[in-house]
Amino acid sequence: MAEHPPREEHWYLLPAAVAVVSRCYSAAILLALHSIPGMRPSLLTVWDAAWYLRIPDSGYHGGVVHGGHDFAFFPAWPLLIKIASLGIFPLPETGFVLANGLFVVAAVLIWRVLADRLDAATATAGVVLLAFAPSAYVFSLPYAEALFLVAAGSYFFVRPESPWRLAATAFAMFTRIAGAGLVSSALARAAMTRGRARLAAL
Questions:
Q1: Of 31, 37, 144, 191, which is most buried with the most CB atoms under 10 A?
Q2: Side-chain half-sphere of 22: how many Cα atoms within 13 Å?
Q3: Which residues contact 43 (CB under 8 A, 6 or more apart)?
Q4: What's the pLDDT tens digit per position in 89-119?
Q5: Any residues with CB less than 8 A from the CB of 144 and at least 6 apart, and which?
Q6: How many angstroms separate the CA atoms of 67 and 89, rounded?
Q7: Residue 72: what pLDDT?
Q8: Are 169 and 71 in contact (CB under 8 A)?
Q9: How far apart are CA 159 and CA 86, in angstroms?
Q10: CB 70, CB 51: distance < 8 Å
Q11: 30 vs 106: CA distance, rounded Å
């Protein structure tokens, strides 16, 4: 495997700054929408966020609840919200703070992965597009997307032979079903290599 060029000191500041600015932008939009008369009581509890917040509050249910099945939502994100709330802080606000903070971490990891494989300019453009895409507001809501990006970014951040790849894959699988994509990536690498590299991929 080719060695990556030396990394500049404090390289993480640029992607972190892009992520922070984008989260402030998203939060401002959400607050503006929240102030519109007749808007739902809380934008932090709409759609899937409501499911993710009910699970740490009342656990999983074996049957139909609120017109659906809560076991369709994987446990890593609700568990993290439950732990971070310390049983004191409101779950919606805890999820909001976690989601925004995790997106900053994910942006730094993704920038590094792209910079190592392509170049810094492409990495910056990619992170800007990710952070300011029209749908990027979901990374400011109590959704599992930001946590999944951290897991996926960690998978590609570490070297292929690193045991941390297994941990990142397992964590991704406990976060979203899209974690199966990382398993597919590992299987593809195993198919294209042999010997110790194949064993490490498997």
A1: 144
A2: 28
A3: 30, 33, 34, 141
A4: 999 999 999 999 999 999 999 999 999 999 9
A5: 48, 52, 73, 74, 76, 77, 175, 176
A6: 28
A7: 76
A8: no
A9: 34
A10: yes
A11: 21
Query: In one letter, which amino acid is 201?
Result: A
- The pLDDT of residue 184 is 79
Rounded to a whole number of angstroms, the CA Rg of the chain reads: 19
Please report where in the chains the tokens 């593809």 appear, as a residue.
Answer: 188
Better-predicted residue by pLDDT, 120 or 47: 120
Which residue do the tokens 């739902």 mark? Answer: 40
Sorted by sequence, the CB contacts under 8 Å of residue 184 that are 6+ apart come out as none
Q: What is the pLDDT of residues 161-187, one digit of tens each?
A: 777 878 888 888 888 877 777 777 777
* Nearest to 151, CA basis, from 174, 177, 171: 171
State how far the Cα of 101 lies from the Cα of 80, in Å rounded to an integer: 13
pLDDT at 50: 82
Q: What's the gap between Cα 116 and its chain centre?
A: 20
Structure tokens at 162: 């690193």
What was the pLDDT predicted at 102? 97
Q: Could you tell me if 96 and 140 are in contact, meaning their C-beta atoms sit under 8 angstroms apart?
A: yes
